[in-house]
Amino acid sequence: MLDPLRVESYDYKLPSELIAKHPVHPADRAKLLVYERKTDRVTHALFKDIVEFLPKDTHFIFNNTKVIKARIFGKKETGGKIELLLNRPLKDNLFSVFIKGKVKPGTKLIFDEKLIADVVSLEKDGSRIVKFYKNLSELDFSSLVHILEKIGHIPLPPYIDRADMKEDEKNYQPVFAKTEGAVAAPTASLHFTKALFQRIKKEFNIHFVTLHVGAGTFKPVETEFITEHKMHSEYYEIPADTQKIIDSNAKILAVGTTVTRTVEYYARTKNPFGECDLFLHPLNPPIRVNHLLTNFHLPKSTLIMLVAAFIGVEKTLQLYRLAIEKKYRFYSYGDAMLVI
């Protein structure tokens, strides 16, 4: 029997050809593995049929964060090429970023559109703290995003292992995305076409939260025991109508792991905004979310541990093995799983 405390228990082997490099079209033609916990029943369906598996009194909660063009390419003032990935804004117009290549505090990085990044410090996790300038003026987040829209690239996850393309600007963005700030997509949301989303709005109650997904979502768990892992934090906001639903006894479908963590963090703290660093796993299971919609996740990641928080490690790996056998596509542009 697998020990839910040990990180090794969440490992599995995935054939490389099952890593989705591009989404299916239309997006709602992705496969959907439905697992019913009460009956231990598995159904193989298409994502467009998700509404057939949920009671009409289910409340859908979506994450309306919007992915920004967070990856930019430039050079040091000494001439060496660099790549910078924006992670998140901090206080006082400081930003957490990841930079490929060696840069010391005090280094200036030069980009198109007269954008300059001044490296302030190096953090323990390998990130850097920088300030951005244009024409000697400090930039706030909204001003920076405006420039990134012109010179930046969609920050595809490393396992997609290809350069971003024009179509990724649409594909790697939920159709209901609204509030700019994410550097990774809430990927369960990528399966909703405009038509399917409109159908759900007519047939179900829908609500939103905002959690700006950071680069930390891809951070591997490198400790021996999951309880030793330090969870990354991400900024979230929950509007009043969504708070009301979470505070009620209504049945909730969390569309993705980011919604799950946000709802569960609020259920524990009652804070409608702030920093969410909740780590859900079998020893810290959900207390509010009833149903989970999610993609298939990396081995030994906090995301597969979140799935195991709902159904246990053994069942999670059993379903993943079944998905591999049935040639489901994995990760951000891959297929989906519904736990009810």
Please provide a written account of the structure.
It is a single chain. With 340 residues, the protein is of the alpha+beta class. It has helices at 141-151, 168-171, 194-203, 240-247, 257-269, 302-311, 313-325, and strands spanning 31-36, 41-46, 59-63, 65-67, 71-76, 81-89, 95-100, 108-110, 115-122, 128-134, 137-138, 179-182, 205-211, 234-237, 252-255, 273-276, 291-295, 336-339. The strands form three sheets. A nine-stranded mixed β-sheet has the order 2-1-18-17-15-3-13-14-16. Helix 6 packs across helix 7 (313-325). The longest helix is centred in the last third of the chain and has 13 residues, at 257-269. The mean pLDDT is 96.
Blueprint of the fold:
Blueprint: E1 31-36, E2 41-46, E3 59-63, E4 65-67, E5 71-76, E6 81-89, E7 95-100, E8 108-110, E9 115-122, E10 128-134, E11 137-138, H1 141-151, H2 168-171, E12 179-182, H3 194-203, E13 205-211, E14 234-237, H4 240-247, E15 252-255, H5 257-269, E16 273-276, E17 291-295, H6 302-311, H7 313-325, E18 336-339
Parallel strand pairs: 1-18, 3-13, 3-15, 4-12, 15-17
Antiparallel strand pairs: 1-2, 5-6, 5-8, 6-7, 7-10, 8-9, 9-10, 10-11, 13-14, 14-16, 17-18
Helix pairs in contact: 6-7
Which terms summarize this structure?
single chain; 340 residues; alpha+beta; QueA-like; Thrombin, subunit H; 2 domains; 9-stranded mixed sheet; 7 helices; 18 strands; 27% strand; globular
* Fourth CATH level, the homologous superfamily of the largest domain: QueA-like
CATH topology of the largest domain: QueA-like
Oligomerization state of this entry? single chain
Strand order of the main beta sheet, please?
2-1-18-17-15-3-13-14-16
- Overall pLDDT score: 96
Give the SSE order as H and E letters. EEEEEEEEEEEHHEHEEHEHEEHHE
Q: What would CATH call the class of the largest domain?
A: Alpha Beta
Number of strands: 18
What radius of gyration results from the CA coordinates? 20 Å
What is the terminal separation in angstroms?
Answer: 24 Å
